[in-house]
Amino acid sequence: MTATAERPTRAAVGLRSERGPVLGAVMLTTGLIALDSTVIATAVPSIVGDLGGFSQFPWLFSIYLLTQAVTVPIYGKVADAVGRKPVMVFGIVVFLAASVLCGAAWSMPALIVARALQGVGAGAIQPMGITIIGDLYSVEERSRVQGYVASVWGAASVAGPAIGGLFSEYVSWRWIFFVNLPLGLVALLTLQRRFTERVERRSHTIDYLGAVLLTSGCSLLILGLLEGGNAWAWGSATGLVVLGGALACLVAFVAVERRAAEPVLPLWVFQRRVLVGGNLTAVGVGALLIGLSSYVPTYVQNVLGKGAVTAGFALGALTIGWPIAASLSGRLYMRVGFRNTALAGVAFGVTGSVLTLLLGAGSSVWAVAGAMFVTGLGLGLTSSPTMVAVQSVVGWDRRGVVTGTNMFCRAMGSAVGAALFGAIANSTLSGLFRSAPAAVAGGLPDVDSASTALSSPDPGVVAFVRDALFDASHSVFTGLLLVAVLMGVAVALIPRRTQELVFDEG
């Protein structure tokens, strides 16, 4: 597949928009989301130690990603009608307000609710930033700009685990949310002053019923995956009702979208090979990213016995490889095409996942960092080309929709991945704890407080729990390898060649 030139629509973004400052604001907001996505990873043990609820900690990731995912299509549709700027400003304001609430949380349920509100803000920020880049820059220019944005993502992500570890060990985990405020305010002011749009206003209809069905279906799906095998048995009546309700809502959603005048998630985005391949790839990227971000720090801290700062830097290697590969991907896809570049990324991703799976109970932190770096190269070579590919086949008035859909798929991949990997880890731990030898069974806490047993005075209990946590992490890493392989299938769906084409919804 060969990339083709596409010129930005100046009439849409406004002649007075200053591309440099606007790009700077987008990079700042990208840094905001990246920082928040990784800063919490190394703070989970501290948060759980303060608020309790080890089995509930996946909700800190899942609820954030869920609310982000289900709002992205709505924001994309609204942005195509009223412009990118109002949606972006709204998202930043909501995100910052929610960050304050997260820092002030007094219990795990309160923190989960605040994280849900954060996701509502993030659902606007990330896709609008990418859409604005698509508006302002041509395909050739995006190869350079994507490298800039990816570098910011990498720098913020590398700093995130380190900041999370430092605050958790020496100050308080609450400050990991408060650090969002200065970055977000600078981005907000810059965007307000420098970005000008000229949008042709028109009346539009919001698909409320579709939005409710999509939110309900996705929420029930995540609930079923997270709590299945934990709050209720997988085959229980409750489990079947929850998952059956999710299926019913999603089926009804498809039926509603077929008849809606302005569907919140147009079905035509799932009927073109470029878009289908790019969206399924985004699902895999999201699942890989959340799985590594959630369980690599847990593995390093609870299995290898390292501190939160060390765990943060080990995970940070992932986000060093990502921007390097993303910067190179622009040059590659202009020469060999989107599909071939993404396939090279999948090869790196599979290799990195294999290296992660081979980590043992006594592996070095350098081995962990090496596996993360290789995986990061794969994600950088895969995510950027597929995103530019889906943007390159539509015009300005539909770029928000396809970008929002792609980000929705990535967020849903992360949300479902967090739920599924959480279920795998909890199920593994529960099984091992139930079959624990009599010599240590009496000293074991419940699964919800498994990590606290690592400070037990009984060496037998410590050894058993450490081995159990390793087995749980190993089970998750096996799932990550499967996801990486399936990403290759998704990329293969993208045609070898594409033409710059604005197609009709029908």
Overview of this protein structure:
The chain is built from 19 helices and no strands. The protein is an all-alpha fold and 506 residues long. The protein folds into two domains: 10-197 and 264-492, Up-down Bundle (Growth Hormone, Chain: A), CATH 1.20.1250; 207-263. Helix 12 (273-303) runs antiparallel to helix 19 (459-492).
CATH class of the largest domain: Mainly Alpha
Helix and strand run: HHHHHHHHHHHHHHHHHHH
Major β-sheet, in short? none
Straight-line distance between termini: 24 Å
Please report the number of helical segments: 19
Give the helix proportion (percent range).
Answer: over 70%
Measured on Cα atoms, how large is the radius of gyration? 22 Å
Q: Count structural domains.
A: 2
Quickly give the structural class: mainly alpha
CATH topology of the largest domain: Growth Hormone, Chain: A
Q: What's the name of the CATH homologous superfamily of the largest domain?
A: MFS general substrate transporter like domains
| Uncertain runs | 1-16, 499-506
Arithmetic mean pLDDT: 78
Strands, count: 0
